[in-house]
Amino acid sequence: MNMRLQRASSGSDSLVELMAAVVIVFAAACPVHAQVNYTSTTGAPYIQTFDTLLQTGRTAFQQSSPSTTLDTTNQLVGWYAYRSGSSTQITANDGSMTTGGLYSYGSTGSSDRALGSIGATSTAIGDFVWAVRIRNNTGLDITGFTIKYTGEQWRYSAATQQTVQFSYGIFASGNAPSQSTLLNTAAAGFTAADGMRFSNPVTSGSFGALDGNMDANRTILTQPVHATIPVGQDLWVRWNDINHAGNDHGFATDDISFTATSFQPVPAPPAAISLGIGGFIGLLGARVPRLRFCNRK
User: Fold this and answer.
1) Together in a domain, 12 and 64
2) Mean of the pLDDT values across residues 16-37?
3) Which domain holds residue 24?
4) In whole angstroms, what is the distance from residue 88 CA to residue 81 CA?
5) Euclidean distance between CA atoms 219 and 293, whole angstroms
6) What is the DSSP string of 121-159?
7) What is the pTM of this model?
């Protein structure tokens, strides 16, 4: 981020210096994580189809502090993926692969992709979570929204029915949840939406690859949510695919849609507070440095 601190005059007192130091601290705390910037107040949805994911081979995705993002190599701005294991690969998979991993699911040679995984007990794999970070840049507080997505099954493992957990949380822009928080399905700050959990629709037959784009192997899930996302704050929506007992099915999510449906104006600050700040600055008797804050995404 870029922040410049310029003085209007060479003279200053200790109070002005203190104010400058405080601003520098705030500038250092400006968030560096990417997010989806949602601006529509007219019902236009944010949509993610994952069709920029790789169609063949494998590639590394960033898994390091302070965050894991799928932005760079897969053009999924605002999307994050973590695993409890140590591997950092995402692999194209048509459902035929049996090993645990983070996958770009889709038919061979097809650009129609979905993001998913197979959990495993190995130290390299473990549990998975993928999440999207949506910032409210509408200028209004969002008081209701609708989320819709398609859950797809790309492999049947002959195990009992398993489930991908769904939850959401609202966080201040400079307070993104950590990797351990996102991986922990019981972590504070997230609300589970049981009606949005995806369980494998195929529960019998021979184990093996499935076509997750076929109606029999997919489920469309949608739910309206009444919750407030204040202006400038972030909605995190996450899907947790833990390592289940026995062999894991191949799960994926596709066609994610977020639409803000209701709003309210941002409350104006009390007049007394505004007057108090103006009076305080007037009493300084010195010119306050012109401050340029970082641009938030």
Assistant:
1) no
2) 48
3) 5-28+271-291
4) 10
5) 45
6) SSTTSB-EEEEEEEEE-SSSEEEEEEEEEEEEEEEE-SS
7) 0.78
